[in-house]
Specification:
By secondary structure, the protein is α/β, with parallel strands linked by helices. The protein has 13 helices and 15 strands. The protein has a 5-stranded mixed sheet. The protein starts with a helix and ends with a helix.
Length: 448
């Protein structure tokens, strides 16, 4: 239950970034102390939990009601207490003028944000991913709560009592919308045999005999620009909707092929993809990386693909302050993949959401600096947690809510939680996931 100096430095940087106020964390034997720079006294955490220093999901969880102690949860009601099944006494006591907090808020923050829970896990799904259903958050019913943000809000309330001059920085709620460009076009990059099969399928499905000519015609006319008739070419519409809502979309492109059946059928150097990138950039939106299927354990491959994207952007005179992105299929091995992003010089990663259930995998809706819990090392790359992916909520293979009011309510609940905590609602919606008009209606409603 001891923090390394590197871990304390990383946690301090997170709290300083969150509150905009210089603080200091120090550990002395079994007590952790928080100091507010320029103020006298400290706050003690004297019930540190060993569960927060191991890769494990099999420990207790209870809840705490803030109202009897004159505090308030930003989401209302009780707040979950991982590692403690019963809070046997008040959260805050005063000893010799200093406040003692009888729950390990800092330990929980470390465990959730470092994703120590996921290190060397073997209970993975068929894509090698750590699933939501194996996580402590899902097993104990708090996956849809940004639990770290709730507890840091409580800690800020306690600090205000201890130091009345404490005035944390105000944050503004934001929607971060991104699009993994797995399939930019149905016809443009596919071989003619696949185009004919896709066309035949659409004719049989919709009974429109004229569709038999559209596929080959669209492919033939997509040598320099993805034709506007291609059913998956939703890029202008996506940018229109973002701009109408004052948002900037991020489009993440695949730049490698490590599994021919899972990766894209386009190359980033293709004239039509280059034209699409120019159009995205000229409209003020973002271009990012979507590393290939089998790259998540291969740092050399991720760097190769990042460099390829950088090369194409340079050749097209597209200059961005930084490049971020997300792993294909949300494949992730922790902390291997995070270190690969860091080594490739990428600014942020937005993979950290579960494929099988939506919610707060990291317990937060705030972006924060990455940390390797094995090497105990703070990284340059930042983690931008993914809160919701459209197919997670809609598709039968995952939550299966379909194009229903229940699905819309699920999106809205997650978005409202982020809004109540002035965080970021990070949404992934693929450009190719608009098969029905209802999907467009839900999308517009969610990001409005």
């Amino acid at each position: 239950m001891y923090f390394t100096l590197s871990a304390l430095d990383w946690l301090t940087s997170i709290l300083v970034e969150r509150w905009g106020i210089p603080i200091k964390l120090e550990q002395d034997f079994k007590v952790l102390r928080l100091y507010l720079c320029g103020e006298e006294g400290h706050i003690e955490f004297n019930r540190l939990q060993s569960d927060f220093h191991v890769s494990n999901s099999d420990f207790s969880c209870g809840s705490w009601n803030p109202e009897p102690e004159g505090m308030k949860s930003p989401l209302g009601g009780c707040i979950p207490t991982p590692a403690v099944s019963d809070m046997d006494g008040p959260l805050v006591t005063v000893h010799k003028g200093n406040f003692q907090i009888n729950y390990d808020i800092i330990g929980l923050t470390y465990w959730m944000l470092s994703r120590l829970e996921e290190v060397e896990r073997t209970d993975l799904d068929h894509f090698g991913r750590f699933p939501a259903t194996s996580s402590h958050a899902w097993l104990n019913g708090y996956l849809e709560r940004p639990i770290i943000d709730e507890w840091l809000d409580i800690l800020a309330q306690i600090m205000k009592r201890r130091w009345p001059s404490f005035s944390p920085k105000k944050h503004e709620f934001a929607v971060k919308v991104s699009h993994d460009v797995d399939v930019p076009a149905l016809y443009a990059f596919a071989p003619y045999t696949k185009v004919l099969r896709s066309t035949a399928s659409r004719v049989l499905k919709h009974r429109h005999i004229e569709d038999i000519f559209i596929g080959p015609w669209v492919k033939f006319n997509s040598s320099k620009v993805i034709h506007s008739f291609d059913p998956l070419n939703n890029f202008n519409w996506l940018m229109d909707v973002s701009e109408q809502n004052g948002l900037k979309s991020a489009f993440y492109f695949i730049c490698g092929r490590t599994d021919i059946s899972k990766d894209a059928d386009y190359e980033p150097e293709h004239p039509a993809i280059r034209e699409l990138m120019r159009r995205i950039h000229n409209r003020g939106h973002e271009i990012g990386l979507h590393p290939s299927f089998n790259s998540y354990q291969d740092c050399n491959q991720i760097k190769l693909e990042a460099d390829k994207l950088r090369s194409v952007l340079r050749e097209e005179n597209i200059f961005q302050e930084s490049i971020g992105g997300r792993m294909h299929y949300l494949r992730w091995e922790h902390p291997t993949t995070l270190n690969c992003w860091d080594a490739a010089g990428l600014a942020y990663d937005s993979t950290m959401g579960y494929a099988d259930y939506c919610g707060f995998r990291c317990g937060t809706c705030y972006e924060y600096p990455g940390f390797d819990p094995v090497a105990q090392k703070k990284l340059r790359v930042r983690i931008r947690p993914l809160i919701a992916m459209e197919c997670t909520i809609l598709d039968e293979r995952y939550m299966g809510l379909g194009l229903t009011e229940l699905a819309l309510k699920k999106f809205d609940k997650l978005k409202s939680s982020c809004r109540n905590l002035n965080g970021n609602f990070s949404l992934l919606w693929h450009n190719s996931h608009f098969h029905k008009e209802k999907e467009k209606e839900i999308y517009i409603e969610v990001i409005s």
